[in-house]
């Protein structure tokens, strides 16, 4: 009995001093993938979409593509490649949509800066100037500013409403504009109009230069898509024929299909990476 009470006392003392013996270490971030996916959804215009939905769509689409390829060709290797391509398609579409949104909005931010300068010079407060963009701003951006106006009317807190607006727009230039407005709101903005005008000129010059370069390099993406799709169309046509299916069903044929998929992916990514202009980063996102 003495041993039991001694063990209980020792356990109590150990639990008492355990915070000092084993201090709580900082836990690693649980899901960096979820963070990247959440940012991708924001940049693609789906800020309020659950992060699990693209994964579910990817699984379903991959299963459908693999099933169709299996029924058409009867080749496990081709079905595996088709399933992988189908599973990657939703994420590729989100990235493509995010790039299109950034490209379409790139020429609009200078107008937003000019409208904010006009509103501030007319004597409007910063919240009213930003909310007014729901009616006077570029049509592609009015929805986000309308949500900001509703949020501002409900909460009356400019800082939190501006942060939600920044998450909704999910654009590097929008981050710079909103952070400038937040700083002016906190510490005063005697130079706000000058900063916005300089930012407007910089954004306009950058948009013009990027549009010219992207127009000249648009053939790179087209060539990459043709180069990665054409061999698989030929493979599908060959696999439909019985002798072609028998050839690709051998171990050597499976190796050819898998190696071709890997080389196609590497070549496509390398071509796109070499021909893509560096995108500005969201330092305040």
What's this model, at a glance?
The chain has 285 residues and is mostly helical. It is built from 14 helices and no strands.
Share of residues in helices: over 70%
Radius of gyration: 28 Å
Number-wise, the strands total: 0
Helix and strand content put the structural class at mainly alpha
Instruction: Estimate the mean pLDDT confidence.
Output: 79
Number of helices: 14
Low-confidence stretches: 24-32
Q: Please state roughly what percent of the residues sit in beta strands, choosing from under 5%, 5-15%, 15-25%, 25-35%, 35-45% or over 45%.
A: under 5%
Assign an overall shape.
Answer: elongated
Cα distance spanning the termini: 62 Å
Give, in order, the helices and strands.
HHHHHHHHHHHHHH
Give a quick account of the main beta sheet: strands, pairing sense, barrel closure.
Answer: none
Membrane topology: Multi-pass membrane protein
Organism: Microbacterium lacticum
InterPro entries: T2SS_GspF_dom (IPR018076)
Protein name: Type II secretion system protein F (GspF)
